[in-house]
Design goal:
By secondary structure, this protein is α/β, with parallel strands linked by helices. 21% of the residues lie in helices and 25% in strands.
């Protein structure tokens, strides 16, 4: 909560309980949870504006990381973003993302590289997906 979230958003979308923060129930109600196998096609989920895939790629070998990144590129909107863990990178594994200057572990969809793979998927509103390693 102390990593750049403006106070107006913090107060408007979270409630404090002791030293913990909880997301507002109206936002929590918009979240759908499901298991996902990153090694299989998941394009049926649609298109996402932001994908949080923090500390997941480190569990795969280099070749598998490239395949997973290519699958993620298929579901990220042409102007979307990928957020990785601090020790993870796309460098040398895919040309479908580019680093965002000054933002560590944040990658923008690279329309030149992604254009070859992406199917047109209708996108209504902001869509996010968070991927974790079975936690």
């Amino acid at each position: 909560m102390q990593r750049g979230l403006p106070i107006k958003l913090l107060i408007g979308h979270f409630t404090q309980s002791g030293d913990q923060w909880q997301i507002a129930s109206e936002l929590r109600a918009m979240v759908r949870w499901r298991q996902l196998n990153l090694l299989r096609d998941f394009s049926s989920l649609g298109s996402f504006d932001i994908v949080f895939c923090r500390n997941v790629l480190m569990n795969f070998d280099r070749e598998t990381k490239g395949h997973v990144l290519d699958r993620l590129a298929r579901v990220i909107a042409h102007d979307g973003y990928l957020v990785l863990g601090a020790t993870e990178t796309v460098t040398g594994m895919t040309d479908r993302f580019r680093s965002v200057a000054g933002q560590h572990a944040l990658y923008a969809a690279n329309p030149v590289g992604a254009r070859l793979l992406r199917r047109a998927v209708p996108n209504s509103g902001l869509r996010l997906v968070a991927v974790n390693a079975g936690r």
